[in-house]
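Input record, target 12 of the design panel.
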């Protein structure tokens, strides 16, 4: 099956795009085997993170300088390959794309232990607590690098419909109250300040994960991503849950509002309009 061409309008409206064959190079051979042996470590113990602006890897169990350097190189190559492909495939975004973090996810999604708001197997839209979007969109690219097992996701309604139903409930609830206080603190400290839509999206993220009705009875479409496949979505609008699978690579990007095809669908705009 041939890969479809990414369309900005579809992505911005919250649709997920599945690419049966990875359109960029993924780790192969010894590098692939080496990557699958790496363990998450450090404070977060969730994913191994590569920051392309610092060219630095964190969150892994350190064994030697040689191991750390090889891991950095593999994730740097992945980051460069995804970034180049995105700029070629979505030329509209070229002037407004900012690479965020790349991650390697070695744990089995179905059995990963996490507190409720950190559980990725519950339907949610994305917002990053420490990295405010400030009006930009969040575009994420995923690759299944398991040698033989599928990755299973569910997606549900897009943000525009979720806001119609849940925006007032979120505002009236205490969901994610600490995000409000965190935002006030960062405003006082004048560091990495989130805007009101960032705070709302963090609260919506927490609200959706704790809403029994949405989790149990909300519409959902199941996706099975085979080894070697890639999928991408603007996960601030595409509600999703990571249900099952091990060994995935992921790269997040911010897309500036000036280059969007449908700026009226951006969370910041939808929230102002609502
Ligand atoms: Fe997510």
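The sequence produced for target 12 reads:
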């Amino acid at each position: 099956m041939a890969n479809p061409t990414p369309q900005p309008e579809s992505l911005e409206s919250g649709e997920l795009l599945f690419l049966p064959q990875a359109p960029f190079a993924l780790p192969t051979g010894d590098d692939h085997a080496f990557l699958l042996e790496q363990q998450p470590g450090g404070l977060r113990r969730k994913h191994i993170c590569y920051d392309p602006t610092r060219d630095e890897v964190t969150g892994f169990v350190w064994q030697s300088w040689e191991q750390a350097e090889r891991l950095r190189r593999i994730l740097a190559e992945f980051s460069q390959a995804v970034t180049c492909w995105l700029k070629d495939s979505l030329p509209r975004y070229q002037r407004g794309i900012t690479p965020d973090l790349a991650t390697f996810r070695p744990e089995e999604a179905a059995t990963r232990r996490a507190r409720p708001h950190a559980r990725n197997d519950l339907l949610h839209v994305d917002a990053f607590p420490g990295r405010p979007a400030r009006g930009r969109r969040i575009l994420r690219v995923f690759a299944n690098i398991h040698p033989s097992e599928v990755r299973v996701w569910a997606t549900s309604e897009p943000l525009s419909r979720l806001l119609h139903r849940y925006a007032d409930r979120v505002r009236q609830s205490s969901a994610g109250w600490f995000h409000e206080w965190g935002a006030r603190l960062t405003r006082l400290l004048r560091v990495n300040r989130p805007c009101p839509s960032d705070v709302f999206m963090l609260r919506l993220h927490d609200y959706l994960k704790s809403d029994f009705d949405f989790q149990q009875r909300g519409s959902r479409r199941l996706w099975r991503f085979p080894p070697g496949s890639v999928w991408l979505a603007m996960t601030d609008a595409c509600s999703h849950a990571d249900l099952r699978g091990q060994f995935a690579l992921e790269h997040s990007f911010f897309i500036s509002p000036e280059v969007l095809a449908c700026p009226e669908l951006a969370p910041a705009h939808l929230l102002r309009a609502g």
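Residues 65-89 form the longest helix (25 residues).
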